[in-house]
Amino acid sequence: MYARFGLFIGGAWRASLSGLTAPVLSPVTEQSLGDCPVASVADTEAALAAAAAGFAAWSATPAFTRPRG
Fold first, then answer.
1. Which of 44, 39, 27, 34 is nearest to 5 (CA)?
2. First to last CA, the chain
3. Is residue 68 one of the residues assigned to a domain?
4. Nearest by Cα to 26 from 18, 38, 34
5. Residue 37 CB burial class (10 angstroms; 0-12, 13-18, ≥19)
6. Average pLDDT value for the chain
7. Structural domains of the chain, count
8. CA angle, corner 47, sides to 46 and 51, nearest 5?
9. pTM of the full predicted structure?
10. Which of 9, 14, 20, 28 could form a cystine bridge with 38, CB 3.0-4.6 A?
11. Could you tell me the pLDDT band of residue 6, with boundaries at 50, 70 and 90?
């Protein structure tokens, strides 16, 4: 069903820096849906840095010009 999963960091999908993956199984059929990357400490630090940078840009944007969902 899903050929590939990734880590969404800094607005882009990517594999883990370690290259490690874990199988994703359907809880109903126990069939393999694909593999997902296992985030390392470095991946987590990259995600935190990207989130901090994104927050800085978002918080500097006036509320009335921010996109509304």
1. 34
2. 29
3. no
4. 34
5. buried
6. 89
7. 1
8. 120
9. 0.72
10. 20
11. confident
